[in-house]
Amino acid sequence: MKTIFRPAPIVRHVELDVAHLDERTRSRRGLFTEWIVTNGLGGYLSGTVGGLNTRRYHGWLIAALPAPHGRTMMLNHLRERLIAGGQTYVLACDDLIHKDTGEPVSPYLSEFRLENGLPVWVFRCGGNVIEKRTCMVHLQNTAYITYTLLEGEGGRLEVQPAVHVRSHDDSLAGPPEEQYRWTGVEDGFELRVSDDLPVLKLVWNCDECDFHMKTRRLDNLRYRIEQARGYDWEGSLWSPGGFTGELRPGKSAALTASTEDWEKVRSLSPAAAFAVELERKRRLLRTAPPEAREGFPAELVFAADQFLITPMGRTADQIRAHAVGDEIRTVIAGYHWFTDWGRDTMISLEGLTLSTGRYREAEYILRSFGNYIHNGLIPNMFPEGRTSGLYHTADATLWFFHAIDRYLQVTSDWETLEFLLPKMVDVAEWHLRGTDFGIHIDQNDGLMVQGQEGYQLTWMDAKVGDWVVTPRRGKAVELNALWYNALRLLVEWLEALEDTRTDRARYLQLADQCRDSFNRRFWNGEKGCLFDVVDTFEGGDDSLIRPNQLIAISLKYPVLDESRWKPVVERCMRELLTPVGLRSLARGEKDYKPRYDGDLLARDAAYHQGTVWGWLIGPFVNAWVKTFPEQAHKAQAFLHGFDQHLYEDGVGTISEIFDAEEPFTPRGCMAQAWSVAEVLRCEVMLSQMRSERGQQKELETTVGR
Fold first, then answer.
1. Which of these, 411, 391, 413, 409, lies nearest to 343 by C-alpha position?
2. What predicted TM-score, i.e. pTM, was given to this entire model?
């Protein structure tokens, strides 16, 4: 039987009928279909449907710790077995280098599904049916894994933890088990690694529970995705022994893993932890607009929640925020390896917060980044385990203007605007006189210029060693679209707050100059679309067909003359549109790459040279709706591919990128913030537009009567 995913009432249950898959599909699903559970701090649990750890990031507790640690792998692997009726049933397989694991999925796994965004496994072991679930406590580094006997007489359950405590993206070599100290305490067990790391606490709850102390190394473990990506892929783990207990009819066994203090660990039983997380999920749906409470959009509401975090360890920022009654919030750009990025945060803000009804968190994000501004720039990103950001970005700050506008359109929160407006005026002035990394406005034509040797400053930012793959130095099309939009927004905000101290007319004049120059310089008459970069540092204009030109239409204040919208949209639709986003470069162009695979050099060479990006569907849908308002309803078809994708890579979420050619294989991060955000935003926007059209037709009919 083909892989089946079936919707359920209200909240979609993403369901995989594992037992009836053919062997090849079963194997691929088990190895490469991933799941993730997060805790609102950046910490997570993640793995494959089949239970194999195929990435260095897979584990049962990756804790978000303060600097200098960052996200830390605390509990890597669980070996699980049921002994019943004289037979041993293995619930999770190991992937050993010297052994060809022909069956990477336990033969007893019959079903995998998401319920309210949380993973559920069902194993059929002879006459016994076991259900396994996992969750994290929100804003805690605590994980729960439960095993419940749904049918049968039961048997003895064995769960053996194995660890290699390290940064979640560190080398797999190790572990240095001579540093590990395993201790039994009143409520459970403690694993102490070093004086500067928190103690890992483990609690086992089961009938006739026991722990058998038998330390061992698990060597020659293979991490297949790391191997395919050209990274360190061979690893070892250390196990202190194993938990055992009797699994009785209708009863559960539960393992709790935590880096929190014992008071927090004791405060919630496993059943209570699942109950409070379920209630939190229900509140997410109640907060969301009606258009996002069922089906595919509801799944995306849960997916969006995974990216909104309270960053760990930024003590000074927290003190400043708390002093005025705020909180700090940010956005994890993607799982597993990205931290928070300014650009991704601002592009994602509308979809993650405003399209889910989480307005207060949107405010916190905007205020947090307002406090991070330095020399007219917001941070490009915060490195893992660091409390200060890196600022090498030309567009993140301009997307900040856009994010503020979207927030104000929904909330009319003029108090937040009063807080941010002086900062945004200062941002504009820094750009006008020139700021870091060669970012400045050309006084001759009012267009924005960026470029500094060795830096990648636009969103097309792949870099390998000293090689900047797509430098795009000069006057990039989307940067000037964003700059024009920022100037017009400044004028709008100054008028709204009746600010008489700032020269609004000057900004309006600068915007007019930018628009006139843009339409004169960026139009490529030969191709009937826009140049990607003009006045390049290498000399001449870059005529490669890329999706960046759509941003000249999609923003609130489009810089491109309306008479040229149609050919641009049609060209992008013809050359770039796929079922899961837009190609980053048109077929036939120099350096076009049809696939994103191989080692790091090969992948980065393809990253923005054809590879499809899910988030770009947002600017395309906006541009389509603006250009063809009478055909706005057709835009829904552009999102259909994401519905199916929700079940094929990272279950319940949307990947970062895809191959440029069929079958558009998902690549990169298995869960990406701006992919989820832009698809959800478009779903809600188009649904609201359909509702408004329906109301208008009803009104016209009523008036006609």
1. 391
2. 0.95
